[in-house]
Amino acid sequence: MSDIDLLDLPLVLLSNRGPVSFDRDASGRTVNRGAGGLVSALSGLAEHLDDAVWVCGAATPEDAAVAGENDGGAILVQTQPTPHVVEGQPDGPSIRVRLVVTDPDAYADFYSVWSNPILWFIQHGLYGRSLAPVLTRAEHDAFENGYAAVNRAYADAVADEVRSRGGKALVLLQDYHFYLVAEHVREQCPDVVLTHFVHIPWPGPDEWRVLPGNIRERLLRGLLGSDVVGFHTRRYARNFVLCAGELLGLPINLDDLTVTVNDRVVSARYYPISVDPAALDATLASEDVAAHMAMLRYVFLDEDRQLVLRVDRTDPSKNVVRGFLAFGTLLDQHPELVGRVSFLALLQPSRTDVPEYADYIALIGAVVAEINAKHTKEGRQPIDLRMVEDFALAVAAYSICDVLMVNAIADGMNLVAKEVAVVNRRGGVLALSEMAGSHEELGEFAVTLHPFDVQQMADALYTALTMPMEERHRRLAAAAEQVRTHDVRRWLNDQLADLRHLAGFS
Ligand code: ADQ
Predict the structure, then answer these.
(1) Does residue 411's CB lie within 6 angstroms of at least one atom of ligand 1?
(2) Can you tell me the distance from the alpha carbon of 181 to that of 482, in angstroms, rounded to the nearest whole number?
């Protein structure tokens, strides 16, 4: 990560899941590195700074034990080549980590009642539309004793780290778990320079009116403790500014996307997150992926057959059921495709303790069974549903699919589309929801899906599957170029450049 723009101030990061996590096996304590593009991008930054600390939740019992042994203070973890806790001087890349332990009941209210599903559902247009009772006394209490209390505990940990660095630091907060943190940190450390990045969509004021006035105001005022509130797209940033104007009555400027709070000006900015193309290229070249690729070709691509792919968590916002209904409609209306096109779905079970998610998995299974019963031909089932989390398998499938389906009803960015753009070698067509943030960058190279219109999605799949090869390759090359020139380092550097400016360094 030597091309990350380094900073001249100490850095404090906050996210719910951190860069490392501890476990225990027969040989004793083990240290695991967190997975995913976000963690590796921010880890790269933290590893290169002399004075950085990453505040995160203690996710495992062993994390809590480590935190207890260190009185809740930060520990230094060497991340490469073998992750381990450092007592003296590290001889490789290392990150200072502060694991925050909170009361388990409070954490459950924070995470499983408020962060998911209430905030996630509101921000993906899924909340309060059924006739289920919302908000009950229990949910009101869970806000105070869970979301607000846990946010306060994390804010105190961040403020403590800022104070121990002389009271002036750059603070990067991540996501919907921590909307109240910025305001608390600023109260304690007025000289911080603070960005809160929201990884999921930000809807307009009316969608937020499903929450009572006092709660939505606290969430907004909490975020407005930041100097910059970052989003993936201009649309989300604009919605945020509109919320501050309409729901809090604050002065706003919709041209430069700013909100004035007392004497401070808070900017809403957009930084589209992306992938690490070099890391993806390396994964694609691995033996593991090659073995999966050979298997997938054998199963799905003999005799000029075609493959439609989706790779998602089983989250209702990803709209998996309607995606299968569209594929079923395609086969109903184009019987010549039966036996010639397969749909591989790699679905990672997600948040199964939340009833809506468990119900959703059952519904996915039922819809797939129905379509397979109707359209199985010569022993070939049209849909191959695999409930797995296997990134090497996903990358192998990305590289050889003819069409990638992303039909989310709302999605902050959607990195799957960007991953496919980088690793596909078959002229794969992106069939991409207009509601995914990535549609702003990749829509012109994709076939657009309207996620609430099953017939339109079926027609769009047909367009993608019958597109001339030359055009497929032309579009894919353009999408790959866009992603390679707008990678995750750029996402980070653009934020750092704004922070440096705010801190008076440029
Ligand atoms: P997610 O909702 O998790 O992220 P996404 O951006 O698509 O959605 O990232 C998912 C990641 O998990 C991808 O790297 C994908 O390859 C991987 N993945 C998904 N299913 C998998 C499976 N079955 N097996 C293996 N790997 C799988 C949230 C927001 C997004 C936003 C990101 C980053 O909801 O909109 O893009 O954060 O900000």
Answers:
(1) yes
(2) 34
